[in-house]
Amino acid sequence: MKKIIAFTFLLIFTLGQSQTKGMFSKDPIINLENFQKQRLYFGYYLGFSSFDFKFDYKTVSPDIQVKKSTGFNVGVVADLKLQEHVNLRFEPGLYYTKRTLYFPDFEREIDAVRDVNSTYIHFPLLLKFSSVRTGNIRPYIVGGLSTTLNLSSNSKSKDDNLQQKFRVKPWSTNYELGFGIDIFSEYFIFSPSIRGCFSLKDELIRDNDPNSPWTGNIESLKTRAVFINFTFH
Asked: 111: which residues sit within 8 A by CB, 6+ positions away?
């Protein structure tokens, strides 16, 4: 994931530099000059994600370790212009990821390790604040709220960690913050962006035993994630 983030920064910098050079040429070409005048437009995105869990505990104890993996994202974008530099965006998408939890108080792997595969349907409603367009580039920041449906939550299962079932609630509410850059090409707008997503509510479904060695000492469990999306309009 670090390599992907580094690549994204390099890509943004390289494309921004190439567009800036074109802006200061003798006869700069302004691509899609009237695009920003549209009231409503659509697009799609592809990307990568890294999901984590944030644990809070009732009493001091060894941390539950989370091994993250790089997942993928795909979705669509609807963008509504509110003001000259403010847009309302709806970006529903499908996110797939995997996390592996390591519980420190067990010796046997069957007790200590839990694989958490997650397939999310993600519904973010965001405000995009764009700077003044400079040539064919336009940086922006974005933030807002989202709700997420976890199709792999195991919430309906009566089995718990005694039967190797780690359960979380199917719905979560989050806030999101990020930044990106619109790069205007001759035929479309390419927008690489990086965004953080942070759950606002406890998502854990406790084991049937209140004193469970897996969930008994957990005060709250909240998802946090990093999204790298490449959007095309």
From this structure: 103
Q: Tens digits of per-residue pLDDT, 96-117?
A: 999 999 999 898 999 999 999 9
- Distance between CA 45 and CA 93 in Å, rounded? 9
Over residues 35-87, the pLDDT tens digits come to 777 889 899 999 999 999 999 999 998 999 999 989 999 999 999 999 989 99
Tokens matching residue 216: 């008994």
Q: Distance (Å, rounded) from C-alpha 55 to C-alpha 124?
A: 24
Q: Show the tokens assigned to 83.
A: 């003001």
Residues 6 or more apart from 189 whose CB is under 8 A from it?
32, 35, 43, 182, 183, 231, 232, 233
Residue type, position 59, single letter: T
pTM: 0.83
Domains of the chain: 2-30+40-232 (2.40.160.20)
18: phi then psi, degrees, rounded to nearest 5: -65, -40
Which tokens belong to 7? 């690549």
And the tokens for 145? 């709220």
Confidence of residue 11 (pLDDT cuts 50, 70, 90): low
Q: How far apart are CA 115 and CA 161, in angstroms?
A: 11
